[in-house]
Every structure is written in structure tokens, then in C-alpha cells.
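This section describes the prediction task in plain terms. A model, or a person checking by hand, is given the sequence of a single protein chain and must write out its three-dimensional structure as a string of C-alpha cells. No templates, partner chains or ligands are provided. The sample shown here is typical of the held-out split.
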Amino acid sequence: MASTADFRNGLCIIYNNDIYTIVQFQHVKPGKGPAFVRTKLKNLRTGKVIDNTFSSGHKVETARIERRPYQFLYKDDMGYHFMHNETYEQISLQKEMIPSPDLIKDGQEVEVVYHAETETPLTCDLPPFVVLEVTYTEPGVRGDTTSTTALKPAELETGAKINVPLFVNTGDKIKIDTRDRSYSERVKG
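The expected answer:
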């Protein structure tokens, strides 16, 4: 059990008979009335984010989760297949359990989040950044725009489509932020 004083980003709690992680929280002490904690909770099974308010001192049950290192092997009709890095045990996850599954390439290292009591996988966390090669993009023409932050669509080696700056060409390797699917920088070599 934990109280609202123990809240921190990433804490996993059991709320409405489901497992949620705290994405954001804020302690509020209004001039009139009791203090409370405003939170954003992300459901680890569905990925849905909800807003909730807890009164100050409210007790919640914490969930014990484990992060285990896995390597992506392949994708087929049964789902996405991963292998544990130490035990070589293989598991299959559904597409819904992986945020941005089109940014994963063969051999990619990921972390699979498990509910420790039931030994069930909840979600798959990609690294914050991945490096992928641009397989196709239209050539950008200098003077083509009035804005300094002009973007054009690009297709990556995994089949994902994202927007990149005009100077990125086919064959370039780029770093992508997996949290918001945005271009980060061009990678040399």
C-alpha cells in the first residue's frame, strides 16, 4: 500500500481492478478546502490515459512489475516474437501491446514489462531512440518553402512513415524518438 505522498512518475498502482502507471502527478493545496493530488494514469494493458484526482492521504495498492530484456526476432500472423536475452525463452506479443510496432527492426533490444505476481506480459517498451535508414523520400529542393522547419514524408526500412526535414535523403540513417515518432537527428556513418 502507498499513499498519495509516495506518488512518483512511473509508479504502478492497481486502480479499478486494472494496472496503471503514473504518467504525471501534481499536489494541489487550494486556499479553501482539503488538499488533493491530480494525476494522469496510463493503463498498462490498453495504453489508454485517464485523468484522476485522489484526495490527499488516499491509500492505493501498488503493483509489482518487472522489466526484462528481450530481443525482437520476427513478426508473423501470431504476433511479434521476442527472445529473452539471458534465458533464450521466446514469447509472442500482440501488436496492441507494443507502442509504435513499425519502428522495431530485427535484432532490436526492448524491455518487456511483466506483472510480477501473475507472470503476464503487460507491455513492451522500446528504447527512447532508434536508428533507421530512409528507404524512400522525395528530394527536397532548396528555396522550396517559406518556413525554416519544413518537413516532408519519408519511408523507413521497417515500413514506418514519418516526417523529416528537407535535407534528409534516401539512404540516410536517422535517429527517431520512439515516444512521439518524431525525427531527432541524422546519424553519420
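For orientation: The radius of gyration is 21 Å.
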